[in-house]
Every structure is written in structure tokens, then in C-alpha cells.
TrEMBL record:
Stretch list, region Disordered: 1-22
Protein name, as recorded: DUF7122 domain-containing protein
One Pfam entry name: DUF7122
All copies of domain DUF7122, residue ranges: 3-76
Source species of the chain: Natronomonas pharaonis (strain ATCC 35678 / DSM 2160 / CIP 103997 / JCM 8858 / NBRC 14720 / NCIMB 2260 / Gabara) (Halobacterium pharaonis)
Amino acid sequence: MSAENDGQRFDRLPETADERTVEGRATRAEVIDWWTERFGLAADHFSDHTFWEKGAGKIWAFADDIDSPARVEGLGMTFLRTRQEHWKPTTDAVQRFGADATRNIVVLDAADAQAFLRGETTTPGWDGDWGYLIAAHEIAGAVEPIGVGLYVHDEFRSQMPKGRQREL
């Protein structure tokens, strides 16, 4: 791994802070701890994945392994944004891993789920943590994650990417 961040290549995250060579780069342990603490996912949920940074704080999850660094355009799925005040999970990551979350999930009724998918702010009456939460909706008897929302000041702000917003 190089001792500097390069936005044109993927570098594998170091396992621990002791192995970190790029200042500010998250570690595999920190990423997994964040997901387990924030959303209640078991740490072994990510045992088959490697984690990579491309750019400043853009973390990708890859269900395989290759040599590091890697000069490719994409590697697995975008997973998490770090190097900002509050880490933010991606819509892809929440849709892929969020079904097994046990904490910080806002289950939206039909009207709020439709508004969320349009990119709108809702007021679902959440009585939990502020910050980035998993937005979900009950479909066919199961709670399914639909995206990421930011809950602040009694508002749940949809973080659905513009290109994925839908009118249902």
C-alpha cells in the first residue's frame, strides 16, 4: 500500500490502526465496528468481504480479494463515506446488508416510503438516534431496507440519490 491517497486507484483498508500508512484512512476494524455499533450487524457478516478506499473516504466492499493497490474503475459496491464528520452508509450498502440490521431502522408506512423514494423529507415519529438511519418498509410480511435517511430535528431527510428517486 502506498503512503499517500490516490483517487485513481483502490487501496485495501489496513486491518488495524497499527497497520495504517495513509493518514485519515479508515481501517477494516473501524468500518466493521461502525456497522455493528450503528446498525447491530454481526461482525462476521462482513467476513467474506475486503474493503477498499478510492478517493478521500470513499469505501468500497468487494466479495473477493485481489492484490493492492488496484487501478480499476470499480471494485464491488460503494459502501461507506468516511473522512467527514459523520460516516454515511451508501444506498447500495443499506439495500445489500440492511435487512439483517437490528438497530437504527425507521420502518416507514406506505405514504412515507413513497415520499422517501421521491427524495422528500418526512416526519415518521422516530424516537431513536439522530444521524444516518436505514429507511425500510414492510413488503410481503418482511421489513426491507430501501435506503439511507438523515434524521435531525424530528425530520427524516431522504438521501435517495437523484438518479434512483421514483414516483410510485
